[in-house]
Each structure stands twice: as structure tokens, then as C-alpha cells.
Model the fold of this input.
Amino acid sequence: MVPTNYYIILSAILFGLGVFAFVFKRNIITIFMSIELMLNAVNLAFVAFSRALGKLDGQVFVLFVIVVAAAEAAVGLGIIILIARNRQSLNVERVDLLKL
Amino acid sequence: MPAHPILEYLWIIPLLPLLGSATNGLFGAKWPNKIVNWVALGSTGLSFAFALEAVREFFDSGQVLFRKEFFTWIAAGNFRAGFDLQMDQLTVVMMLVVTGVGWLIHIYSTGYMAHEGGYYRFFSYLNLFMFFMLILVLAANYVLLFVGWEGVGLASYLLIGFYFLRKSASDAGKKAFIVNRIGDFGFMLGMFLLFRTFHTLDFNTLFDLKHAAGWQAEPWGQFGTLTIACLLLFMGACGKSAQLPLYVWLPDAMEGPTPVSALIHAATMVTAGVYVVARSHVLFTHSETALVVVAIVGCATAFFAATIGLVQTDIKKVLAYSTVSQLGYMFLACGVGAFSAGIFHLMTHAFFKALLFLAAGSVIHAMGGEQDMQKMGGLSKKIKYTYATMLIATLAITGFPPLAGFFSKDAILLSAFQIPGGHPLYIIGLLTALLTSFYMFRLIFLTFYGKPRYDERKVHVHESPWSMLGPLVVLAVLSIVGGWVAAPALGGGRDYFADFLAPVFGGHESTEVLGEAAAHNLELTLAFVAVSAALAGLGIAYWLYLSRPSKPEELAKSMKGVYTTLLNKYYVDELYAAAIVRPLLWISTNVFWKTVDVGAIDGAVNGVADGLTAVGDGVRHTQSGNTRSYAVWVVIGAIVIIAVVFFWTSAGKPVVGMVR
Amino acid sequence: MTAPLAVFFVLAALAVIGAVNLILQKHPIHSALSLIVVMVALAGLYLLMGAEFVAAVQIIVYGGAIMVLFVLVIMLLNAGIEEHTSISKLAGVPGLLLVAALGGFIAATIARSTDVVQAAQQTGEMSSTKGISNMLFRDFVYPFELTSFLILVAIMGAVLLAQREKS
Done:
């Protein structure tokens, strides 16, 4: 069997890559996708622990996470469309109207 | 109905003037003078009536000391200071003087202040003063006495600065209060020391402790606890009773209306210091150093003030210095152990000094406000009653028999002569009596005799109304008969006044007895010497001011240095200003204001505000509007939380990282 | 090297490569496709762990709906090549340090765990859809209802946001 630790490590790696992308990429949509990546990494961890503990709670929670991610993606992309219309650019650095 | 209703409700005596003060103060602004009069005179008069009744009940009860605790004011730990009032023979004397003379001066004021603005305010303050003074004399412990002490100081400030729109008046009020404060500082330290040593400030308990604790009498030169406490109390008395070096406020206090000078700065408030020393006689007699200091300061002040009074031209200033001088006599008496003589002089002085001030007020009123004696003259025919009463008062103060001042001053000088080492004090006291006679008769001659030195067309000299003359007459009668309670002593009988106060001072008076007959002869001899001194003073004054009116000027020119020094009051005020006031002001401005208040305190507060603003300015940059920096902050926050959880140990083992 | 382990490594490598590619690509559409690869790999991993229902949901919802949505939006907005992908001055080295710190913490946490946890014996009941639905509709019925409400709100929000302004 695959030790649970391996899944956790993989989850950590994916999460770290997600954070990296979140900090360093410029395109709003890419940043959004990195958030989805992070959520997926967390889902992996949930399922892994669910298997390790022998309970189904983790998987149920994964379902909820997926639902919420879907809702968030819908609304977030709606906002991104608005931003793109207003600023004529998908560069996150152009979204700076609050700058002093 | 209890057997002694007034004694049971002794607080009614101070309370009535307080009510009068409050009523006049709150509502009097709209009332006509008549109603203000009724309230003020009524409350004081009732207080006097109740005081008489209380005295009657006190004698009726046959007690030596009546003491009643009304309520506990301070109870902290094992210290208790209550609103306790007491009545003994000393209180009887003080209370009757305060209420009686006070009431007469109230009546006088209705005439004197009739045309002044702020009429209701004057009587409100005057009644307030009566309240505090009565608290002072009725108090049964030092704490309540101090309440009255401070209160009369406040009333004095309010009344001296009554014409507050005049800068000299408000300055004088401030000076009085501040100089008094210096004395009060000593008084408070004395109280603290007494409490720390004996754990009580109640008169009864404190003065009885001498039996219990067996106090050691402290000889000359030894500065034990009692000596220091007495000296500190005396410092307070110096401030309140205008002795060296804290007398400087009294001449300036003449800025107040004349009835104020009569009541507060002649008859009652300034005698509070003498009262305190007399009340604390048990403490003082155990400390020889303190007694010597009191006697010397009193004697020196008497002489010093008399010399200044010789050349003053303002009629009220002469009387002010005379008051300082006479107070010196009272302290001299207490210092040589003759406490009842001191109180006796206090009582007679109240009569004739109040009379002198009120009569001077009458003169000023007659002259339309003029106070400079050099612009008076020849008034004896024009204001007969004022002249007659003032002459009686002058005869009393200079010590002509059989008026009151003779007996009281005589008792003091006799006691001074009799104690060991008292001869120098006696001689200075005698010299002061001569000077007193001189300047008082100088006052009379300059004011009432000679040619008028004013423009008779401009000034319409008129006699005062009967509201002012009435009290003058009553006080004149008292000045004549007031000393007769001690008169029989000269004829070989008893000194009734000393006998009356014997239960209070019993056993602590100087009892140097040279043998009955010898003592009696000594008394007569000294009396004769004193009268001669008074006559000498009268003679010199007559010679200088009546037979040779130009002589004073010649003398002044020939002794210019001495004359100028005396005229400028020995430059004491200037000395104080330079040595004390200016450095204090400099320190207050430069050190305390600029450095401490503005620099340190404001700097600290503003510094905190500025610091916070700076921090805010720095933190502001986190809200940069730059989305990517926000992302970075999110990650930083996440890492911080993970770090906290990671390093958080519970019972030595890390909380995170345990996987079953 | 047992078979599950080998499969695990393959799928894991696939996921990591997909994630790395997401970062490296300049055009968002390529990043989106890489993300789809990651998700499929993860679905495979879920299957390997025996969570069939979750794997199916992952593919259907995540892969089939969400990522399609992403691709549609990219096409709609004509997203072009990302402007200079140089590291911004704000992120830079501190950002790298942060990521390293994050990774370090997680690694240390894992290292601290007391033992290598073995998978529990899998019973059919464990991963059965029946089991999940039992839990979902009994123990977690409130969150379930709430999430359905959430989806409703999200739909309304998305519609509202994307409306063209009535001119």
C-alpha cells in the first residue's frame, strides 16, 4: 500500500507550487487557476486522511470543497470579466485604482 | 426637651451664619439691601443669642468641659476625626467675642457699605467668615480646627479682594492667602507630627495623654518631638496672626473694606493663632524652646511693627501695624506662660481695635473716602461722636487706667518681668508701649486736631449714620469696662478673668510668686512705669504734632535714612520679592512650565501621538493598492499562523504533527 | 516496488509536472490545460485510494465544469500572452523565501509524525457511494442545504456581474 505520508507530501508539493504561482504570475486568470490548484492539493490531503482514519468524513468534506470551489469560480470569473472590460487588460498590476 | 438644648445642638451656632451666607449668596443679588440686612444680621444675631444661651447652659451644668461628637467625618484605620464641638471657658471667651463683636460689625457694615456695589456678596462672605471662625473656636480636634483655619483664610481672601476690579486689592487678597499658606504648611506638618507620635488629634485625648505617657519636659535647646511640633504649629500661628516673618500680608489687607479690617484683621481671624497656642498650652509648656521662641518672636514683632507704624500716613496702615504689634504682645504673654493674660489681651484688643477700625472707617466715610492723614485735620468738632469713641479707644490701647488695655497690657508686662530672663523682654515691651502711645496719639492729633489740611469746599465732612455710630458706642463702653474683670487684682483682690480661665490653664501658668506682698508691690510699680511710658508717648506726640507742627518734617529730614527705612517698612516686601518671589517665578516659568510641562509632559503625550502617527504612516504602506503585494501578505499571514501552530507545544510535545 | 506504488509515482509525477507547467507557461490557455492534467491525475490518485465517488465528482465537476468555464472565459476575453513575466520587484526573493518556508514547515510537520501510517483495511462499505450519501444526507444535511443555497447565490451573482450595462 502507498503510505499516507506520500500523499501528504504530494499535497504539500502541489500546495507550494500553487502558492508560488499565486505570488508570481501576472495574469489574473492564471492566479485564479493557482487557487484552484491549492484547493485540489487540499482535497488530496483530505482524502488521504480519510483513508488513513477509515472514516468517510474526509470525502464528504471534499465534496463540499468542490462545490464551494465551483461557486467561487463562477463568481470570480464574473468579476474577472468585469475587470477585463473596465481595465482593458488582464494584468493584475493594472488593477491598482486603490493605489495612493 | 433635653436639659441643655443649645449645648446638645451646639452646631446651630456656626450653622446659622452659614445659612445666612448661602441665602445671601444664592438669592441676594436680586434683593434690596433691606432684605439682605435682615438675613445677615438675623443669622449673626441669632447666633450670638444662641451663643449667650449656650454659655448660660454651660455654667448651669457646672461642667468644666462640655464635648459632643456629632458625626464621624474621617475614619481611616485607627484615625478618627469627627465633627466634634467642645465648650470650655476658653471657648466661651472666644465665642462671645467672635459672635458679639462680629454682630456689631455686621450692624456697622449695613451703614458703611450701603452705597457699595455687591452688597449681598459682602454679607455673604462676612457670614461665611463667621461660620468658619465659629468652627475654629468650637472645634474639639485639630482637624476640624484646621477646617475653620483654612476657611477663615478663604473668607479673608474673598473679603480683602472684595473690590476685585482694583488690581491692588486682588493682589493683596492673593498675598494674604499665599503667605497664610506658608504658615498653614507648618501647621499641617505639626498636625502630622502630633498624629504620628500620639495617634490622635483630639484635644481631650491628646492633652490627657500627658498623664498616661508621662511626657518629658524638654528643656531649652533640646529639639524633641514636642518642641518641633509646637514650633510647626507656631509657624502656622505666625502666618495667620501676622508675626515675623509672615506679617507682610496684614498691611496690604487694608485694601479691603474697613469693616473687614475691623472684624477679620483686628478682632477675630488674626487672633486664631493666639487661640491655637493657648489651646495647645499643654504641649507648649512641656517645651521650653518653643515657649522661648514664641516669646521672642512676639516681642520682636511688637517692637518692629510699632517702629513702622510711627511714620505711616494712611490711617488704616497705622492701625494695621498696630494690630501686628498688639498680636506680638499676645504671643509674648503666651511665651512667658501667662496664657490667660494673652487671652485677656485678645479680648480687650478685640474691643478697642475693632472700635479703632470702625471709627477710622467713620472718619474715612466722613471725609468722602480720604484715608491719608496728612490731608485731614481739625475734625474733632465736626464729627463729635466718632472723635469721642476713637479717643476712648486710643486711651484703651495705650494703656491708660481704668480702661481695658491698661489691665491686659499690665498683666502681660508683669508676667514678662517675673520669669527668669524676662527682663529684656519687659524692657522691649515697655518701649513698645511708649511707641504705641506715640503713634496712636499722633494719629489722633493729625486726624482730629490742628488746622484742616484739606479743601473745605471740596470735602463735606458729615457725621456717620446711627447704624455706624451705634456699634462704635457699644464698643467704646466695652473698651472702658472690659478690663474691670481683672481690676480687683491690683487692689489686692482676685483676677477674675484668670480665675475664670483657670480650669483651662490651671497649673500651667507661670506661678512665680515672690511672696504676696512683694508681688503686689511689684505689680503697682510696674503699672506706674507703664502709665508713665504711655504719658511720655502722649507728651512727645503732643510736642511734635500740636505745639510744633513743623518739627516732624525737620526730624524727618535730619534722620532721613531712618525715616525712609521706616516709611518703606524696612524694605521687607522688596526683600521678599527679590529673594523669594522672583526666584520662584523664574523656576516656575523656566523649569516647571517650559521644561517639565511643555517639554516633558506635553512632549511625552504628543510624542506618543506622533509615534503612533509614524507607525500608522509606516503600516499604511501595506495597503498599497497593489494586488500582488496583497497576495504576498496573505502568504505571510498563512506562514505566521502555521509557524505558531507548529511551534506551539502543549505539555512539552508539539500539538501538530501527531498522526495516529 | 508494488504495483500501487508504481501507479502512485506515475500519477504523482504527472500532477507535479502539470503544476510546474502551469507556472512556466506564458499563455493562460496552456496553463488551463496543464491544470486539467493535474486534475485528472488527482482523480486517478483518488481512484487509487479507493474513493471512487470523489474521483468521479472530481472529473465531472472540476474537470468538466470548472475548467471548461475557465477555458471559456479565456477565450471570451481574448487573453493573450502574459506581459513580461519577469518576477515583480515586490515578490522577488522574499516570495521565494516564503514559499520555501511554507514547504519547510509542511515537511517538518510530516517528519514529526510518529509513524508511517498504513492504510486501513478497505472495506467495500468505506468507499461506497451509499456510505457517502448516508453521511451527506443524514449527518451533514445542514451543510448540504447551505451549499445548495450557496450555489444559487453564486449563480445569481455571476449572472448579475456579467450583465452588460443597460445603456
About this structure: Residues 627-660 of chain B form one domain. The interface with chain C takes residues 626, 628-629, 632, 635-636, 638-639, 642-643, 646, 654, 656-660 of chain B (CB under 8 Å). Chain B has 26 helices and four strands.
